[in-house]
Amino acid sequence: MNITVIGTGYVGLASGAGFAEMGHEVLCLDTDAANIRILQEGGCPMYEPGLPELIERNVVAGRLRFTTDTEEAVKHGLMQIIAVGTPPLDDGSVDLRQVMAAARDVGRKMNSYKIVVDKSTVPVGTAGQVRAAIGEELAKRGAPLPFSVVANPEFLREGVAVEDFLRPHRVIVGVESGDTRAEGLLRELYGPFLRQPDRLILCDINSAELSKYAANAMLATRISFMNELAHLAEKLGADIEVVRRCIGSDPRIGPHALYAGCGYGGSCLPKDVNALIHAAERGAGMTLKVVQAAQHVNAAQKHILTHKIKARFGDLKGRHFALWGLAFKPETNDMREAPSRAVLNDLLDAGATVCAYDPAAMEECRRLFGHEPRLTYAESPMQALDGAEALMVVTEWKAFAHPDFALMRAKLRQPVIFDGRNVWEPQAMRGLGFEYYPIGRR
């Protein structure tokens, strides 16, 4: 099948390369000429494990190409998959300009039946707007061509996007009632990815669009719930890790996304929680109290390490700290809404200096913080500790799991660790002579 993917962000590239891996002829379109040039020259414009290799393999096989030519891209694909960005606006709503621009481009250039697939994360009702935009462009041309609009939300996690695409837990496809042509072609498209047919969920378009926001709101709520319980555990002398294992063993609850820490970040959860709250208020006149509470807890949780540091050291002016982890999660360089940004801003505002290390995100941090003289960068985790009064762990990279603890103690001016991800066991760390401050643990 010929497929066009509009957008070369991590969703668009993972999707395009993934479809090509299954034997489809894929053309990826983007207006960002610099990105397309990188891809055409054999590079990958982002950090995503496994993606460069997947792209290279399918480019060499001739199944994956890249272009900035809209006419060529629309002509190529029976499937026109919209995977462009939907950034937040100041009021928390979603900026759909890129989605609507892509839809209008399809309407202007199509010359035969197309299935337009919304894979971008969009609010309920967007498929109707996409249909209307394409229809308007066709009417201007006097070209009453048939087309279908499908909602196919993505559930790719940064850091494991390739695995998630090639081996999905579920594929949700929202089709218009009676559109058997689109339904049949989407079944054919996703069939090779789904060894278990029940993982393909066919539904109405509104339900499909809402499902992505509902999933991320649920994850955000679970994380914030555990972070709030972690505060309670500290006050009552309980251990949140024991509590997690106890409640996670209940099959009605399950063990996933129940880890306490210093807050969630990234491109999806914060944006989608805000968008869902906004959509409920503006579109349905509802206040989502549980979702709002999760949002408020998370905003406060990003400052929890700073509170612990100030409680331990008092005035931070002139003090120097080490920070391990800048990305919002391991296996990505993404710092959007990352807890590290709140920690760094808090410490710099308090007059402290910081030396940071991250395996992937230091260039992104330099871009975000510019030439801030009080923020420096180390070439290794151990180098970051030189002269620091304490270490803060903000991202749970695997490289941090088994360090040389004796060397850590020797490098730190004081053997103090503030662990925002509960990487190590508290009793073991104290037995090694560290003053150890985890989240909600004894």
Feature tags:
3 domains; 18 helices; 6-stranded parallel β-sheet; N-(1-d-carboxylethyl)-l-norvaline Dehydrogenase, domain 2; Rossmann fold
Kindly describe this structure.
The protein has helices at 10-21, 33-40, 51-60, 70-76, 97-109, 126-141, 161-166, 180-190, 205-236, 240-248, 269-284, 289-301, 304-313, 339-349, 362-369, 381-384, 405-411, 426-431; strands at residues 2-6, 25-29, 64-67, 79-82, 114-118, 147-151, 171-174, 200-203, 320-324, 353-357, 375-377, 391-393, 416-419, 435-437. By secondary structure, it is α/β, with parallel strands linked by helices. It folds into three domains: 2-203, NAD(P)-binding Rossmann-like Domain (Rossmann fold), CATH 3.40.50.720; 213-300, N-(1-d-carboxylethyl)-l-norvaline Dehydrogenase, domain 2, CATH 1.10.1040.10; 302-437, Rossmann fold (3-Layer(aba) Sandwich), CATH 3.40.50.720. Strands 3-2-1-4-5-6 form a six-stranded parallel beta sheet, with helices on both faces. Strands 11-10-9-12-13-14 form a six-stranded parallel beta sheet. A two-stranded parallel sheet has the order 7-8. α1 packs across α3 (51-60), α5 (97-109) packs parallel to α6 and α9 packs across α11. The chain is elongated, with a radius of gyration of 24 Å. The relative contact order is 0.09.
